[in-house]
């Protein structure tokens, strides 16, 4: 009897609680989902994107509000189960997110929040640079080649080429660092020409590097030996000419100059056919500067007062010869 009395008093309260629970069960909203429509989360500058926010359960009408960095961006009301679509333009780094949306009934202050979304801004890569610690090598030596693109969104994929043939698998770099390969120089064909290619997720971002060639030491030695030989020959000629000046050229010049200015002391004698057999003519030949070619005869007849005591008369002449 006691238990029956308690049951009668508690039944109305239990009935009201069941009714409230049933009513509230029909109006409970599930956590909405925020998804990207069609495009990828990797975006480029000034790209338009569309975000979809929808709740799987809960009677309409429902208000959907989009937030960026916990600040309200836009709000839409839906009178049916149609999801809310928000269109955005990525115009700066702050537009990358994070984004969230909130679903709530118009008559209720309690709302449910969705998952968060972040965009990744991708940039085109710059032209990669192909380089090596040394450009000179010898046969049998190991060398390295590095390919690096300074700008562009990560990850960046690099491939090395010799001529038009790839010599490495794709190398994806998730850090801002160069891709490196090691080569063994076995013949002259291994000297190049080498190139590398870089690309990332940016549309049509593939770019090729500069060309690079190694110089084998054998090829360099021939030209270097020729230059050294020509230099030595030229140096020997200069030294020989410098030695010839004091030992040969200057003495020869002085000898010619002394010979042209020295007077001749030789005498010749001729007999004048018109004179008598006892008349003798002496001539002194004196060479002078070879400016003009002519001969001067200076004839001096000396008849001594005592010539009467001699049997013959002597005539002296000085001959000047100019070549």
TrEMBL record:
Keywords: Glycoprotein, Membrane, Signal, Transmembrane, Transmembrane helix
Transmembrane segments: 225-250
Record keyword Membrane present: yes
InterPro entries: Ig-like_dom, Ig-like_dom_sf, Ig-like_fold, Ig_sub, Ig_sub2, IL-40-like_Ig
Signal peptide: 1-17
SMART domains found in the cross-reference section: IG, IGc2
One Pfam family, short name: Ig_C17orf99
UniProt cross-references to Gene3D superfamilies, sorted A to Z: Immunoglobulins (2.60.40.10)
Domain Ig-like intervals: 32-118, 124-215
Keyword Glycoprotein among record annotations: yes
Listed SUPFAM superfamilies: Immunoglobulin (SSF48726)
PANTHER family the record matches: B-CELL RECEPTOR CD22-RELATED (PTHR46013:SF4), VASCULAR CELL ADHESION MOLECULE 1 (PTHR46013)
Name this protein carries in UniProt: Allergin-1
Organism: Lepidothrix coronata (blue-crowned manakin)
Gene, per the UniProt record: MILR1
């Amino acid at each position: 009897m006691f238990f029956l009395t308690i049951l009668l008093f508690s039944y109305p309260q239990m009935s009201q609680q069941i009714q409230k629970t049933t009513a509230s069960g029909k109006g409970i909203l599930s956590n909405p989902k925020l998804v990207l429509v069609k495009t990828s989360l990797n975006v480029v500058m000034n790209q338009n994107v569309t975000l979809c926010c929808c709740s799987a359960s809960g009677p309409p009408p429902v208000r959907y509000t989009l937030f960026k960095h916990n600040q309200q961006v836009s709000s839409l009301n839906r009178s049916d189960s149609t999801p809310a679509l928000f269109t955005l333009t990525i115009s700066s780094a702050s537009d990358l997110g994070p984004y969230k949306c909130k679903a709530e009934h118009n008559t209720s202050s309690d709302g449910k929040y969705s998952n968060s979304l972040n965009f990744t801004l991708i940039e085109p890569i710059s032209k990669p640079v192909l380089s090596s610690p040394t450009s000179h090598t010898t046969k049998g030596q190991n060398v390295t080649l590095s390919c690096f693109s300074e700008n562009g969104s990560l990850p960046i994929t690099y491939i090395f080429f010799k001529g038009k043939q790839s010599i490495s698998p794709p190398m994806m770099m998730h850090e801002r660092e160069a891709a490196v390969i090691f080569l063994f120089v076995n013949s002259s064909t291994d000297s190049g020409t080498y190139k590398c290619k870089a690309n990332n997720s940016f549309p049509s971002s593939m770019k090729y590097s500069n060309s690079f060639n190694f110089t084998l030491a054998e090829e360099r030695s021939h030209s270097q030996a020729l230059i050294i030989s020509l230099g030595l020959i030229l140096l020997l000629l200069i030294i020989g000419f410098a030695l010839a000046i004091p030992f040969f050229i200057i003495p020869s010049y002085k000898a010619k100059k002394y010979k042209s200015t020295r007077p001749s002391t030789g005498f010749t004698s001729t007999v004048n056919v018109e004179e008598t057999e006892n008349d003798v003519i002496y001539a002194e030949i004196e060479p002078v500067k070879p400016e003009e070619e002519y001969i001067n005869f200076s004839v001096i007849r000396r008849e001594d007062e005592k010539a009467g005591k001699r049997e013959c008369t002597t005539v002296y002449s000085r001959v000047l010869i100019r070549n």
